[in-house]
């Protein structure tokens, strides 16, 4: 049998990473990066992981005067701060007036990542400019990590 982790042999989901949620209320995007998960994903054991992540955003009565951009990153926040594999996803927004609708889901490419014990991961997001009316909100975000060895 191969290496084991807190949830069993390698190849099992790392507990409790089944879902790390966005904070209790939607997060209004601004011109500075914000952390989305209410607690970071913690990789308890050292090893190599496959990591999946996604973020869902909505326009909430938003008026955007120019073509704006949402930029999202998967970031290691412990033991030091660094963006994972320079992962960055963008959604380009059109000019809109008081629009409310869901945006396409941001799905990060799967990352193979070698972590030390206790590594913490977070999703961060920024909007190129603040809407003049309404908001652009992130209301779903998650990271799933699978230890492969």
Notes on the protein architecture:
The chain is mainly beta and 149 residues long. The chain has one domain (4-147): Sandwich (Jelly Rolls). It contains no helices and 13 strands. It has strands spanning 4-5, 8-9, 27-28, 34-35, 41-43, 47-64, 68-78, 82-93, 96-102, 106-107, 111-115, 119-127, 133-147.
Keywords:
single chain, mainly beta, elongated, 0% helix, Jelly Rolls, disordered N terminus, 149 residues, six-stranded antiparallel β-sheet
Secondary structure: elements and pairs:
Blueprint: E1 4-5, E2 8-9, E3 27-28, E4 34-35, E5 41-43, E6 47-64, E7 68-78, E8 82-93, E9 96-102, E10 106-107, E11 111-115, E12 119-127, E13 133-147
Antiparallel strand pairs: 1-2, 3-13, 4-12, 5-12, 6-9, 6-10, 6-11, 6-13, 7-8, 7-12
In short:
Residues 1-21 have low confidence and may be disordered. This protein has strands spanning 4-5, 8-9, 27-28, 34-35, 41-43, 47-64, 68-78, 82-93, 96-102, 106-107, 111-115, 119-127, 133-147.
Task: Give the amount of beta strand, in percent.
Answer: over 45%
Overall, the morphology is: elongated
User: How many DSSP E strands?
Assistant: 13
**Computed Rg:** 17 Å
Q: What is the level-2 CATH architecture name?
A: Sandwich
Low-confidence stretches: 1-21
| N- to C-terminal distance | 11 Å
Number of domains: 1
- CATH-defined fold name: Jelly Rolls
Q: What share of the residues lie within helices? A: under 10%
How much is the average pLDDT? 82
The ordered H/E elements are EEEEEEEEEEEEE
The CATH C-level class name: Mainly Beta
Q: Please give the count of helices.
A: 0
Largest sheet: 6 strands, antiparallel
Structural category: mainly beta
């Amino acid at each position: 049998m191969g290496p084991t982790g807190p949830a069993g042999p390698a190849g099992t989901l790392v507990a409790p990473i089944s879902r790390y949620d966005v904070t209790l209320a939607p997060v209004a995007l601004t011109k500075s990066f914000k952390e989305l998960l209410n607690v970071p994903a913690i990789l308890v054991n050292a090893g190599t992981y496959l990591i999946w992540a996604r973020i869902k955003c909505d326009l909430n009565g938003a008026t955007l005067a120019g073509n704006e951009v949402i930029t999202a990153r998967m970031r290691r926040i412990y033991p030091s701060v660094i963006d994972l594999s320079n992962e960055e996803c963008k959604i380009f927004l059109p000019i809109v007036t008081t629009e409310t609708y869901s945006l396409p889901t941001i799905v990060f490419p799967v990352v193979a990542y070698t972590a030390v014990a206790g590594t913490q991961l977070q999703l961060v997001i920024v909007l190129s400019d603040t809407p003049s009316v309404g908001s652009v909100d992130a209301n779903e975000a998650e990271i799933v990590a699978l230890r492969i060895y």
